[in-house]
Amino acid sequence: EVQLQASGGGLVQPGGALRLSCVASGFRFGSYFMTWLRQAPGKGLERVSHIDSGGGNTYYADSVKGRFTISRNNAENTLYLQMNSLKPEDTAIYYCAKGVSLQYNLLPRGQGTQVTVSS
Fold first, then answer.
1. Residue 11 CB partners (closer than 8 Å, separation 6+)
2. Torsions phi, psi of 19, nearest 5?
3. Phi/psi at 104 (nearest 5 deg)?
4. How far apart are CA 40 and CA 115, in angstroms?
5. Could you tell me which of 92, 88, 52 has the C-alpha nearest to residue 70?
6. Alpha-carbon separation of residue 114 from 30, 57, 96 (angstroms)
7. 33 by DSSP, 3-state: which?
8. What is the three-class DSSP state of 69?
9. Separation CA 92–CA 2 (nearest Å)
10. Three-class SS of residue 45?
11. Are the C-beta atoms of 43 and 50 separated by less than 8 Å?
């Protein structure tokens, strides 16, 4: 059974930073691309970033490019998202998902972690 447990969310002021983590189990983590998704209140699911299995190639949505960094530790089955210079529009539930797809809404994902950016 695929399990993806995201953590690290919270309340932060604009301009602040957070580091999200996602611990994976139930599959060979090191063999898969991994994706971060988010869903803001009242909006659809958005692909934030993805990373290849070895960690050498990454993708970022234009809205987070230059502010967010995705990384992974395959030895510890853990995916990360370092978020800097946070903006109110980054407020969302953040999910980690197994794999990568243009139909990212169909990727297996965990329960998510809430990020709120507000003064």
1. 116, 118
2. -120, 115
3. -65, -20
4. 9
5. 52
6. 26, 26, 12
7. coil
8. strand
9. 23
10. strand
11. no
Q: For the chain, how long is the longest CA-to-CA vector?
A: 40
Strand order in the sheet with 18-25: 3-7, 18-25, 78-83, 68-73
Q: Token pair 């980690």 is at which residue?
A: 96
Task: Look at strands 113-117 and 45-51 and give their pairing.
Answer: unpaired
Residue 67: closest CA among 44, 45, 41, 49: 49
Q: What one-character-per-residue DSSP string does 39-103 give? A: E-TTS-EEEEEEE-TTS--EEE-TTTTTTEEEEEEGGGTEEEEEE-S--GGG-EEEEEEES--SS
Q: pLDDT digits over 18-28, tens only?
A: 999 999 999 99
Which tokens in the block code for residue 61? Answer: 């949505």
Half-sphere exposure of 99 (CA within 13 A, CB side): 12
- Pull the structure tokens for residue 10: 């919270």
- Looking up tokens 């919270």 gives 10
CA dist 59 and 52 (Å) reads 9
pLDDT tens for each residue of 56-115: 999 999 999 999 999 999 999 999 999 999 999 999 999 999 999 989 989 999 989 999
